[in-house]
Amino acid sequence: MLYFLAEWLNFEGVFNLVRYQTFRAGATLMTALVIGLLIGPRFIAMLRVRQGKGQPIRADGPQSHQAKVGTPTMGGLMILVALFLSVLIWMDLNSPFVWACLAVTGGFGLIGFLDDYDKVTKASHKGVSARTRLLAEFLVAGIASYIVVSQINTFVYVPFVNDFGIELGPFYYVFAAVVIVGAGNAVNLTDGLDGLATMPVIIAAGTFAIISYLVGRVDYSGYLGIPYVEGAGELAIFCASIMGAGLAFLWFNAPPAAVFMGDTGSLALGGALGAIAVATHHEVVLAIVGGLFVFEALSVIIQVFWFKRTGRRVFRMAPIHHHFEQLGWSESKVVIRFWIVAIILAMIGLSTLKLR
Fold first, then answer.
1. For the chain, what are the domain ranges?
2. Which of 10, 135, 136, 197 shows the greatest Cβ crowding within 10 Å of its Cβ?
3. pLDDT tens digit sequence for 243-287
């Protein structure tokens, strides 16, 4: 909205600042943060009244989690409101990348909301069937992939190698959809402790804000030997909105959490990261930066596969953060140590920009 106004005024005077993506990224972050902090208390109070008993807590989970009974879920709605409003205010909505990311964020958010609603109304942690969820997610991801791929080539670029990519052709559409769906579900599986998923999402979004800006600059991308994607710099602002909305949510989600993100937020944010990675041609780097999410998802896959084959468990409990709780780590120790891992992985991911 402000970008269109500034453009209409030919970016004269103070509106010249709006021309710069770096300024709008900072402004978007602060806008999303302020909106989230302002709506948070009333939003949480509304959720608490409407949900009554809050999110169902697994009886077979760590016993310390039983103290969380009554905590409302669907806090991801607060994130989405702050994110969408800040994006509409500051971003250049002419960019197809923006609409693709908004489609994934909103679509996955809706799927997560329906899942959360089903859990709350039925007082069960099962929610919508996995098959139905995946079909809906691939539908949304497929549409977004079509929008994004129409603007870029169909190469998968390999990090640590200078301007080298593998041509997938039509299969790239499937690959892009798998990346988006995989990212959404990986973040969803990570969201099991207070603040555990929120900060790594913020860290990953900050990392991809830098990547998006560099990929969208022909001079910087040429110097670094990374693929140039015209218009991708606008996604740095989208990443900033994720950071601002995420920080506002973390204010209320910090232990002991006043509200849970729920599938509404975790699916939406994970899917958004996947869409951004596809649009910037840094899908492999997402697996590095979001390695914590990958590790969480793999722990579930390994646990289920091995248990079905042998009847035994590899981990005491999956996802992996519950395994460490069962080993005697306190919730806060698991969360903070996982945050440290996320920061290290983000630094490794950023190093791929130069080590080529």
1. 23-58+73-351
2. 197
3. 999 999 999 988 788 899 999 999 999 999 999 999 999 999 999
Please say whether the beta carbons of 322 and 62 come within 8 A: yes
Cβ–Cβ under 8 Å, residues 133 and 264 = no
Q: Bridge partners of 165?
A: 157
How many residues appear in the chain? 356
Whole-angstrom Cα distance, residue 345 to residue 351? Answer: 10
| Contact residues for 275 (Cβ-Cβ < 8 A; gap 6+) | 100, 101, 104, 105, 141, 144, 148, 180
Q: How many CA atoms lie within 13 A of 334 on its CB side?
A: 24
End-to-end CA distance of the chain: 39
pLDDT of 147-169, one tens digit each?
A: 999 889 999 998 887 767 899 99
Is the CA virtual torsion 197, 202, 205, 206 positive or negative?
negative
Q: Could you tell me how many helices (H) and strands (E) the chain has, helices first?
A: 14, 2
Question: What does the buried/exposed string (b/e) look like for 315-349 if buried means 16 or more CB atoms within 10 Å of the residue's CB?
Answer: bebbbbbbbbbeeeeebeebbeebbeebeebbebb
Instruction: Say which DSSP state 165 is in.
Output: E
Cα gap 82→199, rounded to integer Å? 17
R_g of the chain computed on alpha carbons: 20
Determine the Cα–Cα distance for residues 195 and 266; give it in Å rounded to an integer. Answer: 11
Mean pLDDT of the residues in the chain: 90
What element of type H or E holds 180? Answer: helix 171-190
Question: Phi, psi (5° rounding) for residue 145?
Answer: -60, -40
Q: Average pLDDT in the 296-304 region?
A: 95
Q: Rounded to an integer, what distance in angstroms lies between the CA atom of residue 55 and that of residue 71?
A: 6
Q: Angle of helix 96-122 relative to helix 76-90, nearest 10 degrees?
A: 160
> Tokens at residue 193, please?
């402790």
User: What is the C-alpha to C-alpha distance for residues 302 and 205, in angstroms, rounded to an integer?
Assistant: 27
Residues facing residue 321 across a β-bridge:
none
Q: What is the pLDDT of residues 22-79, one digit of tens each?
A: 999 999 999 999 999 999 999 999 988 887 666 666 555 565 555 566 688 899 999 9
Which residues is 146 bridged to in the sheet?
none
Residue with tokens 């993100």: 261
